Amino acid sequence: MIIHNEETYSRKEMETLQLSRLQKTVERVYHHVPFYQNKFKENNIIPESIQSIEDVRKLPFTKKKDLRDHYPYGLFAVDMKDINRIHASSGTSGKPTVVAYTKNDIKNWSEIVARAISIAGGEPDGIFHNAYGYGLFTGGLGLHYGAEELGMATVPISGGNTDRQITVIEDFQPTVIAGTPSYVLKIAEEMSSQGIDPRNNSLKYGIFGAEPWSEEMRKVLEESFDIKACDIYGLSEVMGPGVGMECHEAQDGLHIAEDHFIIEVINPDTLEPVADGEEGELVFTSLTKEAFPVIRYRTGDIASITREKCKCGRTTARMSRVKGRIDDMLIVRGVNVFPSEIEHYLIQMDELAPHYQVHLKRKDNLDIVELQVELNEKIYQKLNGNMDHESIKGIKKLVQHSMKNHCLISMNVNVMPPRSIPRSEGKAIRVVDRRQETELLQKI
Ligand code: DLL
Questions:
Q1: Which of 100, 105, 244, 422 could share a disulfide with 254, CB 3.0–4.6 Å?
Q2: Is the CB of residue 325 below 6 angstroms from any atom belonging to ligand 1?
Q3: Mind listing the domains of the chain with CATH numbers?
Q4: What pLDDT digit, counting tens, does each position of 266-295 carry?
Q5: Which residue numbers delimit the AMP-dependent synthetase/ligase domain (predicted)?
């Protein structure tokens, strides 16, 4: 196990390093990004205002809208001649957000991801099967450069073409697999359906993230492949994958690369900090980025943090699993629920496969929730594929009951045959929100 110096710093050592890097970052954006300079001036801030690490709270927040408003290059802090790489996030609504890296940024990012892979159990002499999508998405190239930096033999297979993924896993003998948990689960499912035992291969560790996933999904993935599965977190605006990484020793929260980012957790309504251990919105300030520094970026992701030393020996702050994005939270008849909470309970039901989708419609000004679940393959075989069988009604009632009990929402449940819910090759689509559309249709 390689533990880097910075990962075991005392709080004081870490904060001293963070303060000097924060001062440089504030100086940089003040002089090179008019958006930040204007915002700082509105708040009476000059670079010299930052004298202690707590002073970060004097700085104004940055939101996704600010990035969109300056599409594509308006928030870059260096000239285009110094930009080495550009990525963009998919942008489900409107324009994507565009981010950039200098040569030095790529070097830092690669080192951060190399560190993350080794936190998760990866070793330089291993083989890295990278099933994250390559392209504008930061997942593919981010993990690729990190794995190479660590010295692993890196297989840039990208997402999709599941048959080829299986052949490569069988033939190339990877030790680590990385991808979205939903897609890697699809690989396991496909292997089983081809009569290949996914437990019977060279894989030892899984690095999964880019979408919310539950503790129960971890168990499913670990058992499916006989691996240790760890959570990786990140977002393009802040850097990409590697901002946080769970260690394979404790699997108890994601270690934040605090030498490169300041993490805060705030109440999204009052914008005040919440106590350690309490859930809130994650906010990040970059400390070493040159091309695209971000100041107090509001991620929209809900999690909590702890600063207690981890069993693995690292002292860096750890964030909990991300429950979901505030935007993805379902608010149904006054009750708030995240898809990851639905997943938590669904996966515990042996009758079902670990796939689901929530469909939202609107009728007579009321939200209607339909939860689509899939019957487990073995039960389906037992019933000879008869989906009208009495026991299907029983399963439906069971799911309805569990959702009402645990998530406090009444749902229409649709139990579907195995493999009916679309699988994704990247981030899974858990919620299909047709409320606006169905409301409009009713009005016509
Ligand atoms: O998803 C970066 C990434 C790539 C992370 C590969 C991990 C592995 P974006 O496409 O910009 O970047 O999406 C960022 O995805 O704000 C979260 O809402 C969500 N997300 C990322 N990692 C996790 C995770 C990449 N481990 C957005 N758990 C973030 C839950 C995650 N949600």
A1: 244
A2: yes
A3: 1-325 (3.40.50.12780), 329-443 (3.30.300.30)
A4: 999 999 999 999 999 999 999 999 999 999
A5: 77-285
